[in-house]
Amino acid sequence: MVEVQRFLGLTNYFRKFIKDYASKAKPLSDLLRTSSKFDFNEKCINAFKNLKEELIFPVLRLYNPQFKTELHTDASNLALAGILLQKQNTNYWAPIARQRIKLK
Questions:
Q1: Residue 50 and residue 25: Cα distance in Å, rounded?
Q2: What phi and psi, each to the nearest 5 degrees, are found at residue 35?
Q3: Which one, out of 4, 40, 41, 54, has a CA that is 20 to 30 A from the CA of 85?
Q4: pLDDT per position as a tens digit, 55-66
Q5: Within its chain, how far is the Cα of 90 from the centroid?
Q6: What range(s) does the Reverse transcriptase/retrotransposon-derived protein RNase H-like domain occupy (predicted)?
């Protein structure tokens, strides 16, 4: 169950890049309900695979020095991560670069 929570935490951070995130994550979110039996079934496997694909889908944009830019970082004892975002003309924050480094 902890692994599902961690995965949903990661995908939730990037939910603004995943269209219909809530419906795509629902089978996994339902696993975390205390009233439900933990059953990692075919729907959960598909939801996991689909969300994983959404995260690694190559949607990186070219850097534009005229656009507003933000750098988001995350760190733990196990890894460091960061993503460079730029606000597009459509008010959409597009990823420009991503980096993950495993520490151990």
A1: 9
A2: -80, -5
A3: 4
A4: 876 567 889 999
A5: 21
A6: 40-97
Give the whole-angstrom CA distance, residue 87 versus residue 20.
Answer: 20
Q: Give the residue among 66, 68, 77, 65 at the shortest CA–CA distance from 102.
A: 77
Contact 3, 80 (CB under 8 A): no
Residue 76: C-alpha distances to residues 62, 81, 104 (Å): 29, 9, 11
Both structure tokens of 47? 């939801």
CA–CA separation, 52 and 64 (whole Å): 27
| Confidence (pLDDT) at 57 | 66
User: Cα–Cα distances in Å, from 38 out to 2, 35, 46, 101?
Assistant: 12, 9, 16, 31
